[in-house]
Inverse folding.
């Protein structure tokens, strides 16, 4: 069941603006995908999306009507960082990948594959998952928004609150880190 289906099947709050459903509902799956990659915990990602919907509802009066996807994904991004900061303050720094159940995420059988092909596909997916998880969050969020959510540089800049040039630089560094044989982030830590 997708996020859009869950929202439609459950009780919905009354919206101060009739367009709220059309602006937000179309982007619930993208919001969950972004939240999951940012917080690395499927259950916390669900909480992030729910909180983002509530925040979006309360701030819908400030929506200018230009790009609902970028507007809502920025709320999701900010909510994710707020919830992560609150979680770290409450529990101390959590280890990376906590709550991420790799078996549940990556153990989806493809009936068309042979056992060797399925094993190879799972190993490739696990390597990609590890490489993405190893990226600094600033690089990972830009890469996820560009490659998985297929947003433009301009939309990513609006969501992350950085200039387009910074988005392009982060994407270059993220891609370079993914293809680097040692997995380093190509000078990101050094500020180069």
């Amino acid at each position: 069941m997708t996020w859009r289906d869950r929202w439609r099947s459950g009780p919905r709050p009354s919206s101060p603006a009739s367009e709220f459903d059309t602006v937000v509902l179309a982007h619930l799956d993208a919001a969950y995908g972004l939240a999951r990659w940012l917080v690395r915990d499927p259950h916390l990602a669900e909480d992030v999306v729910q909180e983002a919907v509530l925040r979006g509802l309360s701030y819908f009066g400030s929506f200018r009507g230009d790009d609902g996807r970028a507007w809502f994904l920025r709320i999701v991004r900010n909510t994710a960082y707020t919830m992560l900061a609150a979680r770290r303050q409450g529990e101390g720094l959590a280890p990376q990948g906590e709550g991420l159940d790799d078996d549940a995420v990556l153990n989806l059988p493809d009936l068309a594959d042979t056992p060797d092909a399925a094993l190879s596909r799972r190993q490739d997916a696990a390597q990609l998952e590890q490489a993405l998880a190893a990226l600094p969050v600033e690089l990972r969020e830009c890469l996820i928004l560009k490659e998985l959510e297929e947003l433009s540089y301009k939309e990513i800049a609006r969501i992350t609150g950085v200039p387009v040039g910074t988005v392009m630089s982060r994407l270059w560094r993220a891609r370079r880190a993914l293809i680097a044989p040692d997995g380093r982030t190509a000078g990101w830590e050094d500020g180069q």
In short: The first helix runs from residue 3 to 9. The chain has a mean pLDDT of 77.
